[in-house]
């Protein structure tokens, strides 16, 4: 199974090795240092970038260095990047500057963008559209239901993680979304309401989606894996 959004650089090496053998991991980065760590991990899909939470801490030159690293490394994905009005609204202008630069690069190099956008969902989708980005994944989507149609029409995807078992808004999104745009993620090793998110917990996501969609777990896996292969062109 694909884990379409996981912070591989934060896991202990032995634990991560087990996941690499059992899953296709899409490893996102948080800043320049973690981007370099992500590059050292073998057998995964690598995403490099600077997280909105880290933008205000970025040193002068970090953005240009991250862009050069992405160009040089020839990775298929930029992430985790985006906009955040919920947790770090005070740095929003600088976030937009960084996000815009990463989107221009994604368009130029035809890369997937792995997007973080709490309470900035519409801004992020509009920025993707204006930048003419071809492929994007908006992770842990809990945004407006009405925006799901635009996300689908633009050819983008959303990811659902194990929080769907307890997070009502995530459940509403999972039920309303066109199933052709739904992917799975763990967002590990993040902890949410006492849950340690990691790839094995995606089995709980599958069970919940089967319940919400009124299908079998096997049908859920077939759907989300087909979607992931389409996004990553595998």
Task: Describe this structure as you would to a colleague.
The protein has one domain: TIM Barrel (Alpha-Beta Barrel), CATH 3.20.20.140. The protein is an alpha/beta fold and 234 residues long. 44% of the residues lie in helices and 17% in strands. Strand 1, helix 1 and strand 2 form a beta-alpha-beta unit.
Number of domains: 1
Query: What is the tally of helical segments?
Result: 9
**Average pLDDT:** 98
Whole-Å distance between the termini? 13 Å
Quaternary organisation: single chain
Q: What is the CATH superfamily?
A: Metal-dependent hydrolases
> Helix proportion of residues, in percent?
40-55%
Largest sheet: 8 strands, parallel
Strand order of the largest sheet: 1-2-3-4-5-6-7-8
Helix/strand-derived category reads alpha/beta
The low-confidence parts are none
- CATH class annotation: Alpha Beta
Tell me what the CATH architecture is. Alpha-Beta Barrel
Examine the coordinates and then state which fold CATH places here, giving the name of the CATH topology: TIM Barrel
The ordered H/E elements are EHEHEHEHEHEHEHEEEHH
Shape: globular
Q: Strand portion, in percent?
A: 15-25%
Q: How many β-strands, per DSSP? A: 10
GO molecular function: hydrolase activity, acting on ester bonds; metal ion binding
Organism: Pyrobaculum oguniense (strain DSM 13380 / JCM 10595 / TE7)
InterPro entries: Metal_Hydrolase, TatD-like
Binding site for a divalent metal cation 1: 5, 7, 80, 187
